[in-house]
Every structure is written in C-alpha cells, then in structure tokens.
Amino acid sequence: MRQVALPGGERVPALGLGTWGMGEARRGAADEAAALTLGIELGMTLIDTAEMYGEGGAEELVGKVIAGRRQSLFIVSKVYPHNATRPGAIAACERSLKRLGTDRIDLYLLHWRGEVPLAETLEGFLELRRSGKIRHYGVSNLDTADMEEWCALAGGEATATDQVLYNLSRRGVEWELLPWLRRHGMPVMAYSPIEQGRLLRHRALAAVARRHDATPAQIALAWLIRQEGVIAIPKAALPQHARENRRALDITLSAEDLAELDQGFPPPRRAEPLAML
Ligand code: NAP
C-alpha cells in the first residue's frame, strides 16, 4: 500500500475508507460492514468517520468492524463545530471512543469551523492528546486564512492534516491551499474523491479509463493519490466498490492521460473560496 507521511513521520495509507451515510439504516448494514472489512483486508487500513455520520451510527458500525483488529488500523473521527469547546470536544471524543469501542482515536478533526473560537478547540485537542485519547489532531474544511490562524495558535504547528473536498471536478484547492499545506509539511485528506459518484459519467475520465482497462472511479482515485502528500478516502458501501477502488493503486497515469484529464477538468486560474459538501 502506498503511504503518506504525517508531520512527525508516522506513515498512513494513501487510500482509506470513508463512512458518510453508513450506519443510518439496518437495510444495507451487512453490505456496509462487509465492504469495510474487505477494504481493511485489502490494506485500506485508514478509516474516516465522524460523530455526525448517522448521529453516531457510523462510529458504531466502525466499532463492530474493527473489534479484534484495532492495532493495525488508523481511525479518524471528527467533532461537530458546536461541540468543539474545550470541555465539549473532550466529552464528544469520549462518546466517540465508546461507540468505536476503542481507547484512542488516531486522528481527531474539527469537522468545520463554527462559532467556537479555534483556540478553545485546540486546547481541548491538546488535553485529549495529553490524556492519550487521541494520538494526532487536525482540521477539516479550513481554507488557507483559517489554516494560518489555526497553525499560529499554541500547538497549531503539530496539526496533522486538513481534510477538504478535492477531486478532478473540485480543483480550486490547487491554487493556494495545497501549496500552503505542502510548504508546511502537511498532507491533505481528499474527501468525496469521486464527487459522490457524480464524476463517473464524465467523458474525459471514461476515455482514460478505457486506455487502462480500468473504471472511471479507479482513474479518479489514481489521479489524486499519484500526488505526494494526498490521501483519498472514498466511501464504498458495496464490497465490489471497495475492491475496485483498491486497484486504483496499481494504475500509473501517463503524461498523455494527465494532459487529457487537465483538458476535461481544467486546473484553477484564480483563487476561489474553498468548496465544501
Ligand atoms: P465519494 O467517496 O466521492 O463517493 C461515494 C459514492 O460513490 C457512493 O455512492 C459509492 O457507492 C460510490 N462509489 C464508491 N466507489 C465506487 C466505484 N468503484 N464505482 C462506482 N461507484 C462507487 O463521496 P463521500 O462519501 O462524500 O466522500 C468520501 C468520504 O469522505 C465520506 O464517506 C466521509 O468519510 C468523508 N467526507 C468528509 C467530509 C468533511 O466535511 N470532512 C465531507 C464529505 C465526505 P456505494 O456506497 O454504493 O458503494
């Protein structure tokens, strides 16, 4: 499995497993659990979840799947902005730990910026790290100016990642945020890497996929993770999708492929505000 280094040197898989929309209904739960289990067996040992997903349902599902194999996994979860005061973040993390059935979260993120001052959230994260309940902390949906503010706070320099919307059809981050993260030695975690399935019908993607005897989803993922410091976390509730996504790691895109993808999905020509879903 290709890996990406976090600041501080720990290495995590470049391809992980998303869980948004999982754990919401009993129907589909068996497939969801099977897809996550298969994904783990195939080496996608980074699992992204959040207290928001299914209002705890996704964390509970992840808890069931990881029971007995926690050691080899890297679990990411997120705190709601309205819970992200110092005591609120600590309490939310403890609830997440209970649902996940584990004593530590590997990476804990502020889901997006809300009303709570960033300094309070970071104090909560530092306390959680001191007590061993989280190993790393980071943020999500923060644009460059917010990153500057966050990283200037005490402890901000140890931030592990910014998880943002990034895929072929959402390249705005390439203008400023990605170079900023690279300069600060921070990987980006690309969420909705296949634009929740909407990317898959795009003509440019289909043409490149045909050349590689691959699927559009595999090309979209290969395009992201070919870049240094990019982690992609596709969500697959179906085992066949998890298997298909894993094969993205075996694809090497040529200069011709990249040029064709640039034509179909032009890179940004000016600054634009960070998009989020
Ligand atoms: P996504 O991963 O881009 O797309 C998921 C959709 O694509 C699902 O409908 C899935 O179907 C389908 N799919 C997956 N693999 C496929 C394949 N090989 N062929 C065809 N269809 C395929 O969207 P996402 O769930 O929004 O994003 C991924 C993860 O990022 C989330 O689950 C979540 O963990 C995280 N996220 C974070 C934020 C944030 O604010 N921080 C926001 C959004 C997402 P099936 O499920 O039926 O297999």
Explain what this protein looks like in three dimensions.
38% of the residues lie in helices and 14% in strands. It is of the alpha/beta class and 277 residues long. The chain has a single domain (3-200, 229-241), classed as NADP-dependent oxidoreductase domain (TIM Barrel). The chain has a seven-stranded parallel beta sheet with strand order 3-4-5-6-7-8-9. Strand 3 (46-48), helix 2 (57-66) and strand 4 form a beta-alpha-beta unit.
Sum up the structure in keywords.
single chain, 277 residues, alpha/beta, TIM Barrel, seven-stranded parallel beta sheet, two-stranded antiparallel ribbon, 10 helices, 9 strands, globular, binds NADP nicotinamide-adenine-dinucleotide phosphate
